[in-house]
Amino acid sequence: MNERGVPRRANRAVHRWRLPLTWLALLLVLTVGMAELEGVFRWIETDSRQVIYDRADFVTLLGRHLLVVMVASLLATLVGVSAAIAVTRRAGRDFLPLVAQIASMGQTFPPVAVLALAVPVLGFGTLPIIVALLLYGLLPIVRNTLAGLQGIDSSILEAARGMGMSRGQVLRQVELPLAAPVIVAGIRTSVTVNIATAALGATVGASNLGDPIISGIVNGNTAYILQGALMIGLLALTVDSTFERLALRRARR
Amino acid sequence: MIELFDVTKRFGEETAVDGISLRVESGELCALVGTSGCGKSTTLRMINRLIEHSEGEIHIDGQPIRRFEEDTLRRRIGYVIQSTGLFPHWTVARNIGLVPRLLKWSPERIESRVDELMALLGLPRETFADKYPDQLSGGQAQRVGVARALAADPDILLMDEPFGALDPITREALQDELRELQARLHKTIVFVTHDMDEALRLADKLVVMDAGRIVQQGTPLELLHEPATPFVESMLGGDDRGLKEASLVTVGERMLALGPRLNATARVHRDATLRQALAVMFREHADRLTVIDDEDIPVGELSLQRLVGNTRHE
Ligand SMILES: Nc1ncnc2c1ncn2[C@@H]1O[C@H](COP(=O)(O)OP(=O)(O)O)[C@@H](O)[C@H]1O
Ligand SMILES: [Mg+2]
Question: Which residue, among B275, B209, B289, has the nearest Cα to B241 in the 3D structure?
Fold first, then answer.
């Protein structure tokens, strides 16, 4: 870095993280201060006496929502990345076409259907939504991990083996680092989509930011729907722009 | 020393390498030449077991290679490929230090070895150590590839068309560097190329392959003098092969040492090739050249007669 770069570095970091920080700030403000906006919502929803959702406070709903998404995404990442690695090894090669096909097709399968299938097996509550999100979130991660691993120039792998790296060393030191940006992009898609999809959990009794939306639909209260949608939207934007920042930082090395 | 005894490689139905026997002495540079698809790379990669041979035996220093553990074997053999295969996410210095790190050398020893190699390959440390492969020119990247292959000081070096992707000027520069390196290091080298001129310039032993078999092997001059088949002859450039031979012999080997006459005004250096001398004769319309040494002092004379190898009239 040049001399001018050093004192400005802290400044620049704030500048670069401005977008994710802005979304986060808005999200937090709304979480604790939704009631302050009563005037606005009353103007939108003139028919109802109650315009601020209050069956649970937004901090709790946000926390539950995040927890479900985090658990599901973590599991999806673990399972998805492992599966993609397994089918690109010599022993698992036979399953590659099958897994690749499922991964590219699966995205067209609606999450509601996954949920509908999960409830009879797992009952109501948090578990079916975690399973649904896990399955649904698996696909972009598997697809991207496969793309990342298969996109590596074969001469790099030939050199790695030819120099005497073991298969494990090639995987850890060469394949995964080179595929990382594509894998992270898959995780980003998975998490962002799951933040929205998690709202469906409210229909199977997993209380989260989907609650105000469902309740709003059932009671014909537009203000509720808007509050849930705003929170989910801001959460998705916060997480997505954070991933984007991280991706840019990686690209710059 | 590398020995192949009746080695065959089949890929399914197809026979890529068909019963070849070959012996590469220690310190020798053996060039495998042939048209694309004739099995050169397959032969090379059987030596470091990137490909397992189907039949026959391959020995290194008298030991069958199957007796060694794969990774151990490969860490003892340098490997250079056309597309370099450098790791794009590692710096030049880290790339070069790969095998020493696999061999668990101490960090200090790796660092000093990397320094040594960068100097050897003409890559100033300050400029290149922290660069990434995508910041290098083709020639620089291939130098790093060679440095990486030499890092753990292996006795054997396998090179698969290492200069094939470079422009002609860079290619010749790297060929010269390899020759100088080899004169100092005396590695046992198997060098694959489809470029006969490159093979003639570099090889101690030349092996011509066609359709998975060895058609002829010998020194470059042996092949030029007596190509065994029309195929070898055409590989050597048909009628052009006289000129190729002229590129292999230096003026010093043919000149008449300091004689009484020395009146020729056109001059040529003692280490120039006969081909270059011929070019000077053409340019100067001269049939006689004065041969000079590094200090520009005349040391002999080269006549057209001598140049073409006819010494009867001298
Ligand atoms: N891994 C492989 N699987 C199947 N066939 C191969 C493989 N590698 C090489 N071959 C075949 O073996 C033959 C020789 O290939 P190769 O040794 O790469 O030729 P060269 O290096 O002389 O151009 C070619 O016909 C090629 O198609
Ligand atoms: Mg080849």
Answer: B275
